[in-house]
Design goal:
elongated; alpha/beta; nine-stranded mixed beta sheet; about 50% helix; 11 strands; single chain; DNAb Helicase, Chain A; 3 domains
Length: about 500
């Protein structure tokens, strides 16, 4: 019988616990169900915990489980009299239920255990509040929220799904007319056609790493993802900016939209058409559902708590961006290379879990290690260059590695009239400069914006293909654009000539 409720007692159901143990004693099928769904601590009564432990000991030793063998095991444990002797074991076996009903009784025991943990956790939080000094209220709240989540996480243990049932769900989903998504991708658009072709967009539950060396453009690309996704889908986008204030981010977005240099925007040195462009950009950006958190101390628990709260207020949350991983700290962080790697590992796992929990893509900006600089001529990054921890590569669903040749070389286009250089020796940046020069001659206008050619290598894609996409990066105003087909054709022709 369940215990009556007063101010201190915890809930449990003695009959359900007894029925579950009795069924495990007499039915091997029920035994499998019990062990896959319940642990020893899920039983409230001490004698029931001892009986469960005895049954589990026998099961682990591959010894038959019945009243006699469990009696002997309890005798070996010196606990037979503690549980009430053979008579109580017999009472449990008399309480056995049919295999078809075991799930119902297991759920009762599980629910009561979760409820007890929840109540006890609330008591612990209250006790901590009353007895401990709270240095950071936000950290205390975030930690308490995480503890509560852990307390209720095991409410139900998922069962196997039959392939037939899943296939029917997939068939129904395929055959049901779906709303055509922006840019024709299955996920949230990246805003760039060639990246969409590779990734099919950013998918719910995915963690996407955007990594590069400092000042290559990783933050700028993440902001371009946010801006294009928000403007094309009108879905709320959350940005955790650990490195720069919200005002600086907005100025960057103004540069992206207006194509006015960040220097002019920052100094306010705007005249004529630039002033109009900036005013229009401010209006457009102000109408987008962008949410920015620029708290400088990026605590993991705060990011998790704020993300959950935002989704509760904005159920259609489209994406979360964290800039950047190296500045996220856990509450128990400490110095040292080993502890830093462990901290990054925990952060990576937690952010991946958050993406799955909220069912939104999370883009995490990350730096690459200095190993890139130590290589010879080819400094294109590879997955092993991800900084601090191999767990980033393991946990991420998509990894994008950015490479800009002009970051390492300030190369100029060769003098073709002098014929000083063989085509086969041209670097990618030199080929880019040649096509850029040809383009400017054709149009009569410079490309401007201190433009660079950026290689975005989708080096890992858990659910799709990998490959390279190429973008123009206008560094003066932080904007990324895609080259036209005509431009790419010219680049290919130069590359082919270089190979001959």
């Amino acid at each position: 019988m369940a215990v009556s409720k007063n101010s201190r007692e915890l809930p449990y159901n003695a009959q359900a616990e007894q029925a579950v143990l009795g069924s495990a004693l007499l039915s091997r099928e029920c035994l499998y169900t019990v062990f896959s769904r319940l642990n020893e601590e899920d039983f409230f009564l001490g004698k029931h915990q001892l009986i469960y432990r005895a049954i589990k000991n026998l099961f682990d030793k591959q010894t038959p489980v019945d009243v006699l063998t469990v009696t002997e095991e309890l005798m070996n444990m010196k606990e037979l009299e503690t549980i009430g002797g053979v008579e109580y074991l017999q009472q449990c076996s008399d309480a056995m239920v049919a295999l078809s009903s075991i799930d119902y009784y297991v759920n009762i025991v599980n629910d009561q255990a979760v409820l007890r943990r929840l109540i006890q956790t609330c008591r612990d939080i209250d006790a901590a509040y009353l007895s401990e000094e709270i240095n950071d209220v936000n950290e205390f709240i975030a930690s308490s929220e995480a503890t509560l989540k852990d307390a209720v996480e095991k409410r139900r243990v998922a069962e196997f799904k039959k392939a037939k049932d899943v296939a029917e769900e997939v068939k129904l989903n395929i055959e049901t007319p779906q709303e055509v998504k922006t840019d024709g991708v299955s996920g949230l658009t990246t805003g760039f056609d060639r990246l969409n072709n590779i990734t099919q967009g950013f998918h719910p539950g995915d963690m996407i790493i955007v990594a590069a060396r400092p000042s290559v453009g990783k933050t700028a690309l993440a902001l371009n993802f946010a801006y294009r996704a928000a403007s094309r889908t009108n879905k709320p986008i959350a940005i955790f900016s650990l490195e720069m204030p919200a005002e600086a981010l907005i100025k960057r977005l103004i540069g992206v939209e207006s194509s006015v240099s960040l220097t002019k925007i920052t100094t306010g040195n705007l005249v004529g058409v630039d002033r109009a462009k900036v005013a229009n950009a401010i209006y457009k950006i102000g109408s987008l559902p962008l949410y920015i958190d620029d708290s400088p101390n990026g605590k993991l628990m705060d990011i998790i708590a704020k993300s959950r709260k935002l989704q509760a207020n904005e159920p259609d949350l489209g994406m979360i961006i964290i800039d950047y991983l190296g500045l996220v700290t856990t509450s128990n962080s400490s110095k040292g290379a080993d502890s830093r790697q462990e901290e990054v590992r925990k952060t990576s796992l937690a952010l991946k879990a958050l993406a799955r929990e909220l069912q939104v893509p999370i883009i995490v900006v990350s730096q690459l290690s200095r190993d890139v600089e130590k290589r010879g001529e080819n400094k294109r990054p590879i997955l092993s260059d991800l900084r601090d921890s191999g767990s980033i590569e393991q946990d991420a669903d998509v990894v994008m590695l950015l490479y800009r040749e002009d970051y390492y070389k300030n190369s100029k286009a060769p003098n073709n009239n002098a014929g000083n250089k063989k085509m086969g020796n041209l670097s990618g940046s030199e080929r880019f400069e040649m096509v850029k020069e040809q383009k400017e001659k054709i149009t009569g206008e410079p490309m401007g914006g201190d433009v660079s050619y950026v290689e975005v290598n989708v080096a890992k894609n858990r659910n799709g293909q990998t490959g390279n996409a190429y973008l123009f990066f206008y560094k003066s105003f932080g904007r990324f654009d895609e080259p036209s087909e005509e431009w790419l054709k010219q680049m290919r022709e130069i590359a082919e000539n270089a190979a001959n």
